[in-house]
């Protein structure tokens, strides 16, 4: 696979995982009435941006993450202090639609006032002395979707009821939890599609696809043959068939099969491959939608358990940090998986999505799980923890995560390129 193809596969794969994760946050934030200022895929400089329904959608240069910037998570915009001269753009009802902070000469229709008092979060009003009538204080109502304009850039105000911090504990918890949840949903959907297209492995005593160069093809066995017994040993599952074949390399075996409602015996001699018998038959696959639907959930649950087992080994010392992979390691693994086919690439993406969901649910500061932990403490205390203290904890957590990322990336570089 070419380097360009690998890069594109990596960007699309990682971008899809981040997109669905942030989409979960975004949908639940919108349903809670939170103003989402930006929905971003990637970090760094903007490559593409457009505005729709109060939100700026951006694709950024570095495809290593993403975010939803919600009102109230960071300090809100510009403080309108007394004495500040601003321009006001009013509608026909004298309601403020735009507040011009600077470069007011570009807005000749703006009404210039010197602020005496302003509130753009709760009561939504602004009062001040007009330029032409300095002795008269006038008060104006501010539209709840009014924008502040600074250096030509418009930023919508966020009344308190549109801010993340003003929402109920349940609404905030669901908004943060939705990101990891959507990663699990994505994995389920991918596994369902794979099950429907490729089929779900079946444990029926039936022969699946026959390889062209195997003993099964040479002896006359066909796909769909139902095996009742092998050398008079009754079989009831696919695993029974595999076990008997593996234990008899080079020994002739008599398969008693059923084909088109007819019974027959066929003799097959398994090839000896590394000490095990092989006849060149794949496991049968079930392509019914019902089986595929169940497969999506069972496969996601299986891999979720496996990842938690690995995390448990990390805690007990059975798994070291050297075995972790960062973006470089994921890139190298993606290249190897992509060479084995599109379906394996989709399966790899589903596993990464589960991993991303689990990692984000861990109670680590700066991750979704860390924020959920603070919400849990808030529920127990009956009041939120001081924002400055929580912010400091998240900052320390973020710094430690960046340090871990550097260590893991260096390990990846040594493992794959040195």
Structure report:
- The protein has helices at 3-31, 169-198, 215-219, 238-246, 289-316, 327-338, 342-361, 368-381, 387-417; strands at residues 36-52, 55-70, 85-90, 96-100, 111-119, 125-130, 137-150, 153-156, 200-201, 226-230, 233-234, 253-259, 262-268, 271-273, 276-278, 285-286.
- A 5-stranded mixed beta barrel has the order 3-4-7-6-5.
- 43% of the residues lie in helices and 26% in strands.
- Helix 6 (327-338) packs across helix 9 (387-417).
- The protein is built from 9 helices and 16 strands.
- The model has no long low-confidence stretch (mean pLDDT 88).
- The chain is an alpha+beta fold.
- The protein starts with a helix and ends with a helix.
- Residues 191-261 form the PDZ domain.
- The chain crosses the membrane at residues 174-197, 391-410.
- Its EC number is 3.4.24.-.
- Keywords: Hydrolase, Membrane, Metal-binding, Metalloprotease, Protease, Transmembrane, Transmembrane helix, Zinc.
- It is an enzyme of class 3 (hydrolase).
What level of helicity do the residues show?
40-55%
Rough outline? elongated
Q: Which regions contain 5 or more consecutive residues with pLDDT less than 50?
A: none
Order of helices and strands: HEEEEEEEEHEHEEHEEEEEHHHHH
Structural class: alpha+beta
Q: What's the story with the biggest beta sheet?
A: 5 strands, mixed, barrel
Radius of gyration over all CA atoms, rounded: 31 Å
Number of contiguous helices: 9
* N-C termini distance: 21 Å
Spatial order of the strands forming the largest sheet: 3-4-7-6-5
Beta-strand fraction estimate:
25-35%
The overall average pLDDT, rounded, is: 88
Could you tell me the number of beta strands? Answer: 16
